[in-house]
């Protein structure tokens, strides 16, 4: 029940984030679909975490080099996702309003991804690995 409610809330927030992204692309005033390349960052964002979790099995250690490297790469991916629409707006490939909508969508999507890992990544009896 609690996990199902969390899953519904996360899917709702993900839909809101993708709606912001699509509004930044599909509104007639903006009409350019270059910001959709941000979807690549959404898909590759959790990959360093998955690799670090697979490689480092000892969860006793407070910090490991593999986990810290995964945090570093994940941070680089997230900063790149926020920088990409700003660069597109700066070179006038998209309008600044579209940039703002894409940045709002980025914030919502990355908070949704973080929420997913906080809710389902604990490793207790009910975890995201079951999905």
TrEMBL record:
Where's it mainly located? membrane
Can the keyword Membrane be found in this entry's annotation? yes
- GO CC aspect terms: endosome membrane; Golgi membrane
GO BP: late endosome to vacuole transport via multivesicular body sorting pathway; negative regulation of growth hormone receptor signaling pathway
Query: Which stretches are transmembrane?
Result: 6-25, 32-51, 71-89, 101-121
Q: Per UniProt, what is the membrane topology?
A: Multi-pass membrane protein
Q: What is this protein called?
A: Leptin receptor gene-related protein
Q: What is the lineage of its organism?
A: Eukaryota, Metazoa, Chordata, Craniata, Vertebrata
Gene from which this protein is expressed: Leprot
């Amino acid at each position: 029940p609690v996990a199902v409610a969390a899953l519904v809330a996360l899917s709702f927030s993900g839909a809101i984030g993708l709606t912001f992204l699509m509004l930044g692309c599909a509104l007639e005033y903006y009409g350019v679909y270059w910001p959709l390349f941000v979807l690549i960052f959404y898909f590759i964002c959790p990959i360093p975490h998955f690799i670090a979790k697979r490689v480092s099995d000892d969860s006793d250690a407070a910090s490991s080099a593999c986990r810290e490297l995964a945090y570093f790469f994940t941070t680089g991916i997230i900063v790149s996702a926020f920088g990409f629409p700003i660069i597109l707006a700066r070179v006038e490939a998209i309008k600044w309003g579209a940039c703002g909508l894409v940045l709002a969508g980025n914030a919502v999507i990355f908070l949704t991804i973080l929420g997913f890992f906080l809710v389902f990544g604990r490793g207790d009896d009910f975890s995201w690995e079951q999905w």
